[in-house]
Design a protein that fits this description.
- With 440 residues, this protein is of the alpha/beta class.
- The protein is built from 20 helices and 14 strands.
- The chain folds into two domains: 196 residues, NAD(P)-binding Rossmann-like Domain (Rossmann fold), CATH 3.40.50.720; 241 residues, Rossmann fold, CATH 3.40.50.720.
- Strand 5, helix 6 and strand 6 form a beta-alpha-beta unit.
- The longest helix is centred in the middle third of the chain and has 32 residues.
- The site of uridine-5'-diphosphate-xylopyranose (UDX) has 19 residues, from helix 10.
Length: 440
């Protein structure tokens, strides 16, 4: 059954969701006030890098079932489901999430929404936000809005696949009506046997931040072990493998290195602590401050290792391989590789960045960093190379070939992805985080 839906906010989440809705057979109108972003999408060009999404966008536009508008109109007002997908970034100068964009989008929508429509929030919000939105939307509309919370768990790099084949589907609602309407929209996904959870609204809001807090904790746990391994002659990579065989622990999200970044994990754990404090239970999630601190210390460690290797960084040439917060993405938000590059520059080094897709995004973000699109040219004159993001191209690079072309064969593996014996055999000095076994 085709449902008419609107998707409000066409960033990573919204653009992916709009395309996914078309793939599921629905008629979609995407609302995005940023004219540049809107025009780009309208022309079938994704304003960010996301594998597979560009071709799906082209398909969606060609099908005639994906339309765009900079604001609500009669057509969007006719939608049966409105998905709110606007961002909730960290508030400047505060740990808390900024819900003002969500609130503004909801209030604007309240002037257009019909009595029978369901409004489904997908943005990651502090628990309690949905109730505030429902109250203020209902007041503006003059009737009780059917509001539900439907968190999204997509990962950048596999966003469309995660949207179409999620691990689970979560809907938090006050009324059965909203659940049923949303189930109809997601029918093709439910028909795949996807686990479905109808929850109360606060729990649905909490699922996303709790999941991200858990994932961040796993990464910082192994990075804390890395700190211990570094001073005790141990190897955190081997340690992760050994503990990961215990099915209760599992081996996922135990990759040690320069830590987590991006638009979700860092700001979500900070926002979670801030919200828990407001609710008077800050001590319950106080440990997340340590998770954050462990994560940020890994960035200090790389700067420290560079200084140990090169001494005074003034005038030294350092090449950063990969600048996005993770591979298959050009997202530079809270990227560990970017922060390390900026700090090395501030310490006097000349940093050249290579990245398969993120150099354009970098030019406006951090113009003080040199950009080089050719891998060998980027590394040729470097006094030190740092692997900051584990793009396939670096994981599969030939250490013999590279070694024959560069002046200095020293690399810090910030993601523990290089085949250390192979690189050493090719004459490289490999410095690895959390692995005194490699560093000697
Ligand atoms: C995350 C959640 O995984 C996703 O469910 C949620 O919807 C949004 O936030 P994403 O930000 O795309 O997704 O990235 P993710 O794959 O979770 O990686 C986050 C960061 O952790 C990256 O910087 C990655 O390099 C780092 N990471 C991940 C590690 O350092 N070690 C690991 O073992 C795994």
């Amino acid at each position: 059954m085709t449902v008419k839906v609107s998707v409000i906010g066409l960033g990573y989440l919204g653009a992916t969701h709009a395309v996914a809705m078309v793939e599921l057979g629905h008629d979609v109108i995407g609302i995005e006030p940023d004219q540049i972003k809107l025009e780009s999408l309208r022309n079938g060009i994704l304003p960010f890098h996301e594998p597979g999404l560009g071709s799906a966008l082209t398909r969606a536009i060609a099908s005639g079932r994906l339309k765009f508008s900079s604001s609500h109109n009669q057509e969007s007002a006719a939608a049966e489901i409105h998905f709110i997908c606007v961002g909730t970034p960290q508030k400047p100068g505060s740990a808390a999430a900024d819900t003002s964009y969500v609130m503004a989008a909801a209030k604007d929508l309240a002037k257009w929404v019909s009595k029978t429509a369901v409004v489904a929030g997908k943005s990651t919000v502090p628990v309690g936000t949905a109730k505030l939105l429902r109250d203020s939307m209902s007041e503006i509309a003059g009737f009780n809005i059917h509001l539900a919370w439907n968190p999204e768990f997509l990962r950048e790099g596999t966003a469309l696949e995660d949207s179409l084949r999620p691990d689970r589907l979560v809907i938090g609602a006050w009324e059965e009506y909203s659940v049923e309407r949303l189930k109809a929209v997601y029918k093709p996904i439910l028909d795949l046997g996807t686990p479905f959870l109808a929850l109360d609204v606060p729990t649905a809001e909490l699922v996303k931040v709790a999941a991200n807090a858990f994932l961040a904790t796993k990464i910082s746990f192994i990075n804390a072990m890395a700190e211990v391994a570094e001073v005790s002659g141990g190897d955190a990579v081997a340690l992760a493998k050994a503990i990961g065989y215990d099915e209760r622990i599992g081996n996922k999200f135990l990759r040690t290195g320069i830590g987590f970044g991006g638009g979700c994990l860092p700001k979500d754990i900070r926002g979670f602590v801030a919200r828990a404090e407001e609710l008077g239970v800050g001590s319950a999630v106080e440990f997340l401050r340590h998770i954050d601190a462990i994560n940020l210390r890994r960035r200090d460690k790389v700067v420290e290792l560079a200084k140990v290797e090169l001494g005074n960084l003034h005038g030294k040439r350092i090449t950063m391989l990969g600048i996005s917060f993770k591979p298959d993405s050009d997202d530079l938000r809270d990227s560990p590789a970017l922060e390390i590059s900026q700090r090395l520059t501030a310490a006097g080094a000349t940093v050249t960045v290579h990245d398969p897709v993120s150099l354009d995004a970098l030019s406006s973000r951090s113009p003080e960093l040199n950009r080089e699109g050719d891998l060998v040219e980027a590394m040729r004159e470097a006094d030190l190379t740092i692997l900051g993001t584990e793009w396939k191209l670096y994981r599969e690079a030939d250490p013999h070939l590279l070694g024959s072309l560069v002046a200095t064969k020293t690399v810090i593996d910030g993601r523990n992805v290089l085949d250390v014996p192979a690189w050493q055999k090719a004459g490289w000095k490999v410095i690895a985080l959390g692995r005194s076994i490699v560093n000697g």
